[in-house]
Structures
1.
Amino acid sequence: MTNKQIMLTGFRPTGRLHLGHLHGNIVNMIKYHEQYDYYFFLVDWHALFTEYQNPQNIKNNLIECAIDLIALGVNPEITHLYRQSDIIEIPELTLYFSMVTPLSWLERCPTYKEQVKELNAKDLSTLGFLSYPVLMAADILIINADIVPVGEDQLPHLELTREIARRFNSLYGEYFKEPKELLSKATRVIGTDGRKMSKSYNNAIFLSDDFETIKAKIRQMITDPERIHPTDPGHPDICNVFSFYKLYRNENITGIENRCRNGEIGCIKCKDEISKIIYDSLKDFQEKRKNLEKDMSYVYKVLEKGRDHVRTVSLKTIKEVREKIGID
Ligand code: TRP
Ligand code: SF4
């Protein structure tokens, strides 16, 4: 038994990870691994809510993502790494929660309204999509998590989780803890076209890209538009390439900044230098990833071990929940 607090985080598996994922929230998630009893799971059911018409990539994306996470340092010896769809007790808890959750709570959820509008190419006027936060509450409460690290966009869901826990407790007696959020400030990473880095914008640098690929992607980036010759004085503050220097060289950027301003470095050289810095920072990861790809049975074993542990916890919760409600 451990007396560490339980931290839990769910991650949408969108395939191979890119720098936006890494600096956006994975760095924040991974740093707590030793301090807490850490549950890290890949939410394939949540992905299915929006991809139900085209589910063929979900499984592969999940495996790619699991490999990336292990190679990044999620340590399967101390972290429970598992996939949501392996925990078949979660839908049972979702069912009980759906009975006690008023429709109005879900309909007024800001993320719901926003996403239905934003993802209008997909038909999301489904019962399942409306209940997205109910499934999320079950993910969290099935293991009675203490702390959930989330970005700001997920706060309304966590608030709903607490409301559902309170509703359940007031109907059937105290049982669930109210989980707290750990708000992490996600660093916004710009893609090679200047927009937010995203796989769907085709502007991402993937963690598995080799040096030549990174170099080619960075080379296409637009820099200071007024700079024609390498000796023209540049303006790093309006240059997207410079945002990568800020990310990778945070205190150490005055050198490059001055060289740019004084026209002492050309953009191509400046781009190739940052490409090398980015690539070097990924080398260890890439080596680990290659080794994992050669031994996929290890990756599957990690997910099975996670599943077995989490199912033991979940079965206990379900048994006690049934007793609380009085149907057991
Ligand atoms: N909804 C979250 C997202 O889109 C993913 C998620 C599902 C989650 N279940 C969770 C996050 C439980 C934290 C805890 O990012
Ligand atoms: Fe950007 Fe570097 Fe060119 Fe300056 S030298 S404009 S920082 S790419």
2.
Amino acid sequence: MLEKDIATMGKTREIIQKHGFTFKKSFGQNFLTDTNILTKIVDAADLGPDVGVIEIGPGIGALTEYIARRAKKVIAYEIDPRLIPILDETMVAYPNVKVIHQDILKADVGEMILAELADVKEIAVVANLPYYITTPILMGLIEKRLPIDRYVTMMQKEVAERLSAKPGTKDYNALSIAVQYFTDAKIALTVPKTVFIPAPNVDSAVVRLDRRQEPPVQVSDEGFLMDLVHGAFRQRRKTLHNNLASYFSHLPKAEVSALISKAGIEPSRRAETLSIQEFGQLSQVFQNV
Ligand code: SAM
């Protein structure tokens, strides 16, 4: 028989009251209290006995126990010292959970994987992220090219829409390209505010990112590509030509225009209409100037 789930309103309130815990907004603390949503998150993560999971921000363990029941091992990073003794208690029935009291942004996750997850076949990050640092957490992990196969994470819906946006849509921006260069991004489910305590001010969504084996476009300098993408999106309403003319301000405007055409792209287009492949072509042409 399984213990009564942590993620019910009653059990969550009981744990919080017992420990005199108060929510800290600055840590992005909104705990999940809906077992259906938790089932959907772990379903979306394709967990199994060969999968090792990295969780960011276990809170009192609502999602952690759902992961622990299906995965081989869970390594959970929690920044708030007040939650460590609570997790010691709530996770007592799950010997495959290890809590690390550390700020994920300061953690050496690569070292941890070597030490703790050498014996798993696949690695997934599964988390209800602290929303104030969604982008630095995900980009930090993705750009390090760690052996993480997929990320199934809850975030603000607006951010989820940007990460998964396709060219030509209003949400498509430099972050969409940065994430989709490394991963295949899809929204797995959207989540109402009412399933959290306290309820956040924004709607949420769970995004699944699958690490790409190969980048969608071959470039000789990824840093140059990402900087160029930021330059191209600097002023969204302006044309590619205008944005790149200010970004490459050392080049004559006519030359910028000629180089964009040389990459096979019409200079009057806007950045938001370009695919990653087209940004790759631009990057190769401008890099050799
Ligand atoms: N997983 C729990 C749940 O779903 O109920 C809690 C999720 S809550 C949105 C975010 C959690 O991340 C909190 O427990 C918070 O203390 C923790 N957190 C915030 N910043 C963090 C950081 N930099 N490193 C690790 N954990 C962090």
